[in-house]
Design a protein that fits this description.
The chain is mostly helical. The chain has one domain: MetI-like (MetI-like fold, Orthogonal Bundle). The protein contains 12 helices and no strands. Helix 11 runs antiparallel to helix 12. 23% of the residues are buried.
C-alpha cells in the first residue's frame, strides 16, 4: 500500500513545476546574455559579428534551399519505397542505402569535383547539335558555382535520411484506413492528401525538425569548398587577426541561436498538435 502524499497542495504544485522547469534553457539564455553583453562592451566582438554578417545569409540560404529540395526528393523516394512495383522499391532502397553509407563531407567533394563536371558534360552532350549550330553556347563548368554544388550535395545526402522519415510516417497509418478510403471511392492521390498525409505529419514532425537542425550544423561543411558561410568567414577572419577565441565564440553563438530557435519552434508545434489531438 502506497503512503499518502501529506504535502500541502501548493507545495505539491510547486514541486511539479520545479521538476519540469527547463533549467537547460535558462542556462543557455544566461550564456546568450553574456555574449550579447560582450558584443556591447567589446569592440572586437562587434567587428567580428560585422565580418560574419554575409556568412549568416549564405548559411541560411544554403540550408533553406537544400532542405526544401531534399524534402521533395526524399518524399519521392519514400513513395517509391512504399510502391507496389518491385523495381521502384528496389531502386529507392539502393539509392537510400548507398547515400546513407557515404560521409557527407566525402559526398560533398565527390559532387563538387566529380558529379558537377559530369553533369555539365552530359548537358553539353545532349545540347551538342544546338552548340554545333551556334544557337547556344557551350555550358562551362565555371557557371556551376560551388554554392550550388554544395546545395546539390546536401540535397542528395539529406534526401536519403528524409526518405526514411517520410516512409516511417506513411507506413504508420493503418492499412485499414487506406482500404476504407478506396472503398469510399477516393483516388490514391486523394487518399494520400486527406487520410495519410495529415496523420503522417504528426509522426514525422519531430525527426523532420531534428534533421533541419542537423542540416544547419552540417552546412558548415560547405566551407571546405570555399563557400562564404559563417564557418568559412570565421576561419578567414581568425587566421588574419589571430583572434581565434573571440571569432569562434561568435561562430558558435550564431549557430546556437539558429539551432535552438528552430528546436524551440518545432517543440512548440509538437505541443500544439498534442493539444489539438486532446481537444479533438
Amino acid at each position: 500500500m502506497t503512503e499518502p502524499d501529506l504535502r500541502p497542495p501548493h507545495r505539491h504544485a510547486f514541486a511539479d513545476r520545479l521538476a519540469t522547469f527547463p533549467f537547460w534553457l535558462l542556462a543557455i539564455v544566461l550564456l546568450g546574455i553574456l555574449l550579447l553583453w560582450l558584443f556591447v562592451v567589446d569592440n572586437d566582438y562587434r567587428v567580428i559579428l560585422t565580418a560574419l554578417q554575409q556568412g549568416i545569409l549564405t548559411t541560411l540560404y544554403v540550408t533553406a534551399v537544400a532542405f526544401f529540395l531534399a524534402s521533395l526528393v526524399g518524399l519521392g523516394v519514400a513513395l517509391m519505397r512504399t510502391s507496389r512495383l518491385v523495381v521502384l522499391r528496389q531502386t529507392a532502397t539502393f539509392y537510400t542505402e548507398v547515400i546513407r553509407g557515404i560521409p557527407i563531407l566525402v559526398l560533398l567533394f565527390y559532387i563538387a569535383f566529380v558529379g558537377a563536371p559530369m553533369l555539365v558534360g552530359g548537358i553539353n552532350y545532349l545540347l551538342g547539335p544546338l552548340i554545333a549550330s551556334g544557337a547556344i553556347e557551350k555550358v562551362s563548368i565555371r557557371s556551376f558555382d560551388f554554392t550550388w554544388r554544395a546545395i546539390l550535395a546536401l540535397t542528395i545526402a539529406y534526401s536519403s535520411f528524409l526518405s526514411e522519415i517520410f516512409r516511417a510516417g506513411i507506413e504508420a497509418v493503418g492499412k485499414g484506413q487506406v482500404e476504407a478510403a478506396f472503398a469510399l471511392g477516393l483516388s490514391r492521390g486523394q487518399t494520400f492528401r486527406h487520410i495519410v498525409a495529415p496523420q503522417a505529419l504528426r509522426t514525422i514532425l519531430p525527426p523532420y525538425g531534428n534533421d533541419f537542425v542537423s542540416m544547419i550544423k552540417d552546412s558548415a561543411l560547405v566551407s571546405a569548398l570555399g563557400v562564404q558561410d559563417i564557418t568559412q568567414l570565421g576561419k578567414v577572419y581568425s587566421s588574419g587577426t589571430f583572434r581565434f577565441f573571440e571569432t569562434y565564440n561568435v561562430v558558435a553563438f550564431l549557430y546556437l541561436v539558429m539551432t535552438i530557435s528552430l528546436s524551440l519552434g518545432v517543440r512548440a508545434l509538437e505541443n500544439r498538435f498534442k493539444r489539438y489531438d486532446r481537444e479533438g
